[in-house]
Design brief:
By secondary structure, the chain is mainly alpha-helical. Strands 1-2 form a two-stranded antiparallel sheet. The chain is globular. About 5% of the residues have low confidence.
Length: about 230
């Protein structure tokens, strides 16, 4: 944090920023205690309904405990971060397929993050040592992995079926494999629609999590081109 300490005690903890009864951030306190960028980052962090006590954790181990192994890998990553690397390394076909899709740049960036399995789903955040409710924000029946979010959730399945593509959720494939199949489709319009549909599901998910907007998958499926 770069914000100067204000409106908070020097020994303040994260719990001081949370309304225990409402189980949400004390928005006004956060906005008046941090600069705009940091306040927005804080307010976008999902809060667990269990509200566990504050504790120190090491983010690079799932159990939150420090280990020499994880510290070594962290330092290794920092060392390699500045080393130039071809962006197509390891999956040339997927990279080329994504950049051929006729969608805005932000959608292509999203597709690449999805293909690399680095979208900040609740399941992914848990692996980073963040304690939160990992259930799917739509159905609350399974952990929010990318595969479940985009393919197997009942609400997502309704989205795909009511979309112009009229799809059923695939079996025996993961999201990356399903994406590769559609992004390599000879029909450019179908590829574009599939890509924008994935983007729409992600946007719909974020609106439900961060803005508490009610879910309307049928409307979202019909208007997915508007998000491009």
């Amino acid at each position: 944090m770069w914000s100067p300490i204000c409106n908070l005690n020097e020994d303040a903890v994260v719990a001081d920023l949370i309304d225990v009864d409402l189980k949400q951030w004390k928005k006004e306190l956060v906005l008046h205690s941090f600069n705009a960028f940091e306040a927005n980052q804080i307010l976008n962090i999902p809060i667990s309904w269990r509200l566990p006590e504050d504790k120190k954790v090491w983010n690079w181990e799932r159990n939150g405990q420090y280990s020499v192994r994880s510290a070594y890998h962290l330092l290794k990553e920092e060392t390699l971060r500045g080393t130039p690397e071809a962006s197509v390394t390891g999956n040339t076909g997927m990279w080329k397929a994504i950049w051929k899709v006729r969608t805005p740049q932000r959608v292509k960036n999203f597709l690449w993050r999805a293909a690399k399995c680095i979208l900040p789903t609740r399941c992914k955040l848990e692996t980073k040592g963040i304690t939160l409710d990992t259930s799917r924000p739509f159905c609350h029946t399974d952990v929010e992995s990318q595969d479940h979010l985009f393919m197997h959730c009942q609400e997502t399945q309704r989205f795909w079926f009511t979309s112009p593509l009229g799809l059923h959720d695939p079996t025996q494939v993961n999201l990356s494999q399903w994406m590769m199949k559609w992004l390599s489709n000879f029909n450019a319009q179908a590829t574009q629609l599939f890509s924008l549909s994935l983007w729409t599901i992600w946007k719909m998910r974020n609106d439900a999590v961060f803005n508490k907007r009610p879910l309307n998958v049928v409307c979202a499926a019909q208007k997915c081109f508007c998000y491009g």
